[in-house]
Amino acid sequence: MGKTTVSINLAHAYARAGKRTLLVDADPQGSVGLSLTRQSRSLSGFYDAIADSDFPLEQLIIPTRLETLSIVPAGRCSDYELGGGAMGVSLHRVRTFFKMAEEQGFDVCIIDTAAGLFGATADVLSACTAVVVPQQAEPLGVRSVPKMLEALTRMQIVNPRLKVCGVLMTMVQNRLVESVEAVQALRNLLPEKMVMRNVVPRDDLFVRASAKGLPVGVMEEGAGVLAVFESLRAEIDATIHQ
Amino acid sequence: MDPLQPWLDAKEVRRLAEGLLAAPPEVEEAAVDAAYGQVFEGFAGEGGAPDVTKLDLKPKDQLVATEPIAKAQTPVPEQPEKPKSIRPSPEAAVDSPFRVSSNQERCETDVIAIKARGKDDAAEVYQLPSSDSEVADKASSSTAVPNEPIRKLNAKGPFLSRIRQFSQVIREDLGAKAMFLIDVNGQILLDEVENPKLIQVARTLANASQRANRQSAGAAAVGNLHVKIGASSTLEVIPVDSRYGLLILGVVFPGPIGAVRVMQVADELHRTIEPTQ
């Protein structure tokens, strides 16, 4: 459980809070779309807008049952998917995309990016306001955090206003010593604000919600997870506006 | 057992993290958009080609940051070439951001006799030096006191050594990312940028300005010539009269530095070039 699950449930939390929220799938594998819509592969989406700046955003937006939550799937065409893409190539169009979303009246735009900090992910980070770094709470995973910090440092050169909300520990298993130690080791290593106060626990509900194409928060037993993401939303808001 | 400490340099990681948490620079609106308006986001490419051109700030083994760059409003005659793909190499990021080029080494012995670089092999990838995180910090602090005089250099030693000291001062005091110094014929005296197209832009701007008689009195009368080459990169072009004739200084800053700063930089450069005056 990582970026996509966090993105979906965080977007859901923002939407529940009354914010007009746009969840954008910028992962060429289209994970958000695959999670929430059955026909996502046939839909136009983010990468179509990047390939053609005249592509109207309205045609990409998929409404959901929650009035304040809309989705833009990954789309069908992607040079990034084929060749990886050079960082910066489509930065201007990514910025235009964000601007269009703002003009459409969205309060929050959450982008689920692909792993790595190149191609579209780099362009998104070059243009966005803030970044949350989901990181699985296991020893091997946390060892990669320094590399992520290095990469984000470079991204801040391109986008000095990029706010790093911090590392969000996911799949935390309180009954597993190694998982708890991984979280604690990262907290000991990094400044307090760099590791987010909220953590996302490992929970079978995420799998079940994914199977149904739903955010966990709308599941019958989802109140606990819902509270986690509500708290996470508040923490992110506080960090961005501090 | 701690799953992290044995695997990394804790001090360095913490330094990185603290840098990331630092407050973003407060850039004045006017400084960001001077002469380009609110909607300007960098230069677009043409037609169906990738819509940004990228330039190359050497050293090439340094990392990262790319930005939409300029195919030029007016001054750049060339068409943008297809951008090269770059991949970050984190290990390279810790190295010193600037390398002395072979041309620069030759400058030590003969300042003016260096020939211009080839013109047709311009790389299109714009890479920022890894130490730009530090530079950004400096830049933000420098914008806080925009008109405070820069340090008096009193540079000593051979010409190129003095120019390098000057480069260090404008990086530390004004947040410059890189600079080059050429003469009016385009011959390179010092080049930390190593991008022929940027040098050509500087020459074109400086010569056009000269022709318009906007700066015929040397350092005291320099104009405010700058061109935005990326979302957070601006090339300031500062021509300075000297005993070697007109020299053209090109400096890449995060944003325009304003006329007062340009004058200060020009004055300091003039003193650096001709320390006895």
What does this structure look like?
The complex is a heterodimer of chains A (242) and B (277). Chain A is an alpha/beta fold. Chain A has helices at 3-16, 31-36, 46-51, 79-83, 91-103, 119-127, 139-143, 145-158, 177-189, 204-212, 223-241, and strands at residues 21-26, 62-63, 69-72, 108-113, 130-136, 163-170. The longest helix of chain A is centred in the last third of the chain and has 19 residues, at 223-241. Mean pLDDT of chain A is 83; it is low at 79-88. Chain B contains 7 helices and 5 strands, in the order H-H-H-H-H-E-E-H-E-E-E-H. Chain B has helices at 10-21, 29-33, 102-109, 132-144, 159-174, 196-211, 259-273; strands spanning 178-183, 188-191, 225-230, 233-242, 245-253. In chain B, helix 4 crosses helix 5 (159-174). Chain B starts with 9 loop residues before the first helix and ends with a helix. The interface between A and B is large, with 51 and 53 residues.
Topology:
The complex is a heterodimer of chains A (242) and B (277).
Chain A: H1 3-16, E1 21-26, H2 31-36, H3 46-51, E2 62-63, E3 69-72, H4 79-83, H5 91-103, E4 108-113, H6 119-127, E5 130-136, H7 139-143, H8 145-158, E6 163-170, H9 177-189, H10 204-212, H11 223-241
Parallel strand pairs in A: 1-3, 1-4, 5-6
Antiparallel strand pairs in A: 2-3
Chain B: H1 10-21, H2 29-33, H3 102-109, H4 132-144, H5 159-174, E1 178-183, E2 188-191, H6 196-211, E3 225-230, E4 233-242, E5 245-253, H7 259-273
Antiparallel strand pairs in B: 1-2, 1-5, 3-4, 4-5
Helix pairs in contact in B: 4-5, 5-7
